[in-house]
Amino acid sequence: METTRQQKIDRLIQKELGEMFQRQTQAMRGVLVSVSNVRVSPDLSVCNVYVSVFPSEKADEIVKNLNDNVRSIRYDLGQ
């Protein structure tokens, strides 16, 4: 069971990442990346982000790109 603090942080990270991904994918016509769920550990040290990609044919490419750029995404999120 998540605490209220965890839930607030989940929603905040989901909102910020969703806006970041929306800005970054505007140049790619016909591609939609949305953050479907975020889970933060009780001590706030680990965060799991679940994304949804449309169209599904490009999902592997986009998820690989996201995984390759985790450091820059974390930096942008921290700013």
Order of helices and strands: HEEHH
Average pLDDT for all residues? 91
The residue fraction in helices comes out at 40-55%
Give me the Rg, rounded.
13 Å
The shape, in one word, is elongated
Number of helices: 3
Q: Tally the beta strands.
A: 2
Q: Strand sequence of the main sheet, in spatial order?
A: 1-2
What is the terminal separation in angstroms?
29 Å
Alpha-beta classification: alpha+beta
Strand content range: 15-25%
The oligomeric state is: single chain
Question: What descriptive keywords fit this protein?
Answer:
two-stranded antiparallel sheet, elongated, 2 strands, 3 helices, alpha+beta, 79 residues
Question: How is the secondary structure organized here?
Answer:
Elements: H1 4-25, E1 32-40, E2 47-54, H2 59-68, H3 70-78
Description:
This protein is of the alpha+beta class. A two-stranded antiparallel ribbon has the order 1-2. It starts with a helix and ends with a helix. The model has no long low-confidence stretch (mean pLDDT 91). It is built from 3 helices and 2 strands.
Please summarize what this structure is.
With 79 residues, this protein is α+β, with helices and mostly antiparallel strands. The protein has 3 helices and 2 strands; from the N terminus they run αββαα.
